[in-house]
Amino acid sequence: MKNQFKSKPSQKSSLKSSPKSSPRPHQASGKAPAFPKHWRQVAGNHAIMELIS
Description:
The chain has about 55 residues and is mainly α. It contains three helices and no strands. α1 crosses α3. The chain is rod-shaped, with a radius of gyration of 12 Å.
């Protein structure tokens, strides 16, 4: 259980630095702050689901 929680942040940060991450184009538009935050949460949830399955 502890290991799973440990790998969550690292997966998030690797997603963030990935060049094909979705939030980057949205940053150009003014409404960046609201969207990437939600997107990151969704991405984190998907990463957890992949770890479980």
